[in-house]
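Subject: Re: docking follow-up (zinc ion)

Dear J.,

Thanks for your patience while I sorted out the input files. As discussed at Tuesday's group meeting, I've set up the holo structure prediction with zinc ion included as the bound ligand rather than trying to dock it afterwards. The sequence and the ligand SMILES I used are pasted below, so you can double-check that they match what you have on your end before we go further.
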Amino acid sequence: MTALTPRTTKHIGQTAPDQTVPWAGGHPPWCARDHRCTAAHITGGEHVSEPERWKTSHGTLIATRYHNARGGWVEIRTVTALDPHEPIAQAQCRHLIAVTHTVFDRVLRPGKDTNHA
Ligand SMILES: [Zn+2]
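The structure tokens for the complex came back this morning:
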């Protein structure tokens, strides 16, 4: 079992998808509301969350949420060690990309109820 430990107190997914929450001061509840948020300062600016870091037994997952006039998106990065042998490291990279695609397809498929992913 992989241990997942969020490292921030303001989680980017803290609001239920069907819950309407007022955007206090024009910001969504997850917005960092600091220098990273450019929504109120420039045309085409965007709200930006604090990066949410999850320490796992395999490394760190970092997710940052964004929203602008066209919609919202999330950037997800991972930092993990690879095998020291190049062929195995390449296979690990390919497998991680393929599995990530499968998970994204499963979660983001149109009509998918993400509350029970
Ligand atoms: Zn904002």
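A couple of observations from a first look. The CA atoms of residues 1 and 57 lie 9 Å apart. The mean pLDDT is 84.

Let me know if you'd like me to rerun anything.

Best regards,
T.
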